[in-house]
Amino acid sequence: MNVLNLVSNADAQFYEEQTRVLERRGVSCDTVTPPGNHLAREEVQDRTPTDYLRFVPRVIRESFDDYDLVHANYGLTAPMALAQIRHPVVLSLWGSDLMGEYGWLSKACAPYCDAVIVMSDEMARELGEPCHVIPHGIDTEKFAPRPTEEARAEVGWSDETRHVLFPYPPSDEVKDLPRAERVVERANRRIDAPVELQVVYGVPHEKVATYMNAADALLLTSEREGSPNSVKEAMSCNLPVVATDVGDVRERLDGVSPSRVGESDDELVDGLVDVLEAPRRSDGREAVDEVSLDRMGERIRAVYASVV
Length: 308
Fold this sequence. Notes:
The structure is a single chain. With 308 residues, this protein is α/β, with parallel strands linked by helices. 39% of the residues lie in helices and 15% in strands. The protein contains 13 helices and eleven strands. It has helices spanning 13-23, 49-62, 78-83, 96-99, 103-109, 121-127, 148-155, 177-188, 205-214, 229-236, 249-253, 265-277, 293-307; strands at 2-7, 28-32, 69-73, 89-92, 115-118, 132-133, 162-166, 195-199, 217-220, 241-244, 260-262. The strands form two sheets. Strands 2-1-3-4-5-6 form a six-stranded parallel sheet. A five-stranded parallel sheet has the order 8-7-9-10-11, sandwiched between helices. Strand 9 (217-220), helix 10 (229-236) and strand 10 form a beta-alpha-beta unit. Helix 1 packs across helix 13 (293-307). The longest helix is centred in the C-terminal third of the chain and has 15 residues, at 293-307.
C-alpha cells in the first residue's frame, strides 16, 4: 500500500513514529509539507494562508503518482487533500486543529473525507461526524521503568527533593505553565520536603524517558488536549500523573494508582500532595497496551484498507 502523507509538521515525534510503524506493516509512506514554517521562531515567519494555497498545486501533481490514498495529518492540510480527486482521503485530527482556532475548517472538511481519525472520545463528540478513535501510540520499549536513583544521577537531580515534571515549552500557552507553578507552590507548602517544578523541553525524545523515571510526578495543566502522549509515556514509566480533565486523560488514568484528574486548582494540589507525601511509582504500565505503537499501526492500517 502506498500512501501520500500531507502534514504540517513532519518533525513531530508522534508523526515520525506513526510512519515508522506503518512502514513495518508494508505501508510505503511519502511525506510532503506546505511551504513556510509550521511555527514562528524569532525572525522566522510563521506559515500564512498563502503558503497553504501554494501547497495545492503540488499536492495535485503528487497525486498523479502511484498512490492508493492521501492521508491528511492535521486539519489544515485537509483542503489540499480534498483538492485532488484521484484518491481516497483519510484525515487525522490531532487536537488543536479541532478544539482550537481552526476547528471550523476541520469540521467543514471532515464530511468529504473517506475516513476521519481522532485521538479521543471527546474529540469525536466535538467533531459530531462518524470517525475512528485511535490515540497516538507510544514506544513502550523506549518508555519503560528504570530505578529512580539511577535516572536522577543521570539528570543531576537531588534525592532530597520532590521533583514534579512539566515536559512542555514554557511558551505554549495551552499547556499553562503559570497554573503549574501555582499548583506546585501550594503543594510545596504542605509537604515536609522541598518540591521543585522541573520544566523540561527541547531535549531528545529518548531522554524524556530518563526524566520521567527521575521524577516523582508528571503535572499536566493544559487547557485542552487530544490524547497527550506525555501522559501515556508517563504511565508506561510507572510515573504518577496529576492532570486536568482534558482529551482522553480521564479515560487513560481510570484505575491507575496513584494518579489524579482534577478540574480545579484545589483538586490538582490535593492530588499532587497525595503523590508527593509518600512518593511511589504507579501501576500505569499495566494499562498502556491499548496505546502501544503496534496497536496504533494495526488500527490505522485497517482504516486504510477500509477506504481502499
